[in-house]
Design brief:
- With 300 residues, this protein is an alpha+beta fold.
- The chain has one domain: Jelly Rolls, CATH 2.60.120.
- Helix content is 22%, strand content 15%.
- Helix 2 crosses helix 5.
- The N and C termini lie far apart (71 Å).
- The structure holds 2-oxoglutaric acid.
- The site of 2-oxoglutaric acid has 9 residues, from strand 8 and strand 9.
């Protein structure tokens, strides 16, 4: 089967609606994947050696899941991922035509890793309440005080997805090396999992160059890597434009990287205001202007 036959976009969109995830196969050619694999490997080893690695926030056991954050600064080769049009088509189906890249990081599970807790990516989104109930204080939500429940279809209103995560497989994802576990259908539950609860999960598997896409309400985590090789993934995590991005690209990107981006990429990374939000002056600007280039105090 060729890539187009494998990736019937309409049935992938249907699966996003019914199960909260889908897998797109063989989108990135092997030579590009090899270059990305080498770049992450070398970056991850160097970060480890310099002791500048960052732990993921949801892992509870062991230290063998390594993240390489802010990939945008760590190799031009990675830019091919967050602009991928097939991925964007699915993301647009979930979020609508306007969205931002919110996180762009590598996720590596080394053999013998600890079990990452199940979670949903938009755990921080306040839940609907009946009018007589006190509302959730948005600024008081943290991972420890979110609601927990079962992955069954909710009987009261639930929030829409505001996140869509496209997790690229930079090595083959298999059951043995901990291909992302997912609880199909959990996106309609309106609640969060017990991180180490016992739920029926599936492993996302595919060849390197494929991607598992799951929306912000779908319960998931990296799984145990019981193979003898590390599993490499890259998360391109998109969010609705009215929410703060997980990574602050406009502040954290290196100047030479920023200067070389297309206007489409700049918009994706948050350089374009949306509905006035994110503006640094002109609310309709194609691209925001940094402080030093802004109009300051004028006149007397
Ligand atoms: O590495 C994985 O398989 C899952 C990563 C994850 O849980 C996430 O990006 O939120």
């Amino acid at each position: 089967m060729n890539t187009t036959e494998l990736n019937n976009i309409q049935s992938l969109k249907n699966q996003m609606d019914s199960e909260g995830y889908c897998i797109v196969h063989d989108l990135i050619p092997p030579d590009i994947i090899t270059q990305m694999h080498q770049r992450i490997d070398s970056q991850a080893s160097a970060e480890k050696q310099l002791e500048v690695t960052t732990q993921d926030q949801v892992q509870t056991d062991g230290d063998k899941n390594q993240w390489v954050y802010m990939l945008i600064n760590k190799g031009l080769i990675f830019q091919k991922l967050f602009e991928n049009e097939v991925a964007h088509e699915i993301v647009e189906h979930v979020l609508g035509p306007h969205f931002l890249l919110s996180d762009f990081s590598a996720t590596i599970t080394h053999p013998g890793n600890g079990q990452m807790g199940l979670h949903k990516d938009q755990w921080w989104f306040p839940e609907p309440r009946m009018p007589a109930e006190p509302h959730q204080r948005c600024g008081s939500i943290d991972r420890s005080n979110v609601s927990k429940g079962l992955p069954c279809v909710a009987k009261s209103p639930i929030n829409p997805p505001v996140i869509c995560n496209v997790l690229w497989m930079i090595s083959d994802f298999t059951v043995d090396n901990g291909g992302t576990r997912i609880v199909p259908g959990s996106h309609l539950s309106g609640t969060n999992p017990e991180p180490h609860g016992n739920y029926k999960t599936i492993n996302s598997t595919g060849r390197a160059g494929s991607a598992v896409i799951f929306e912000g309400r779908t319960w998931h985590s990296a799984d145990l890597n019981t193979s003898n090789a590390s599993r490499y993934g890259i998360t391109t995590y998109y969010g609705a434009p009215q929410f703060r991005q997980m990574l602050n690209f406009t502040y954290g990107m290196k100047q030479e990287v920023t200067n070389n981006l297309s206007s489409k990429s700049r918009a994706l990374l948050g350089f374009k205001p949306w509905g006035g939000y994110g503006a640094t002056g002109d609310q309709h600007a194609e691209s925001i202007v940094q402080g030093d280039d802004q109009i300051g105090e004028l006149g007397d």
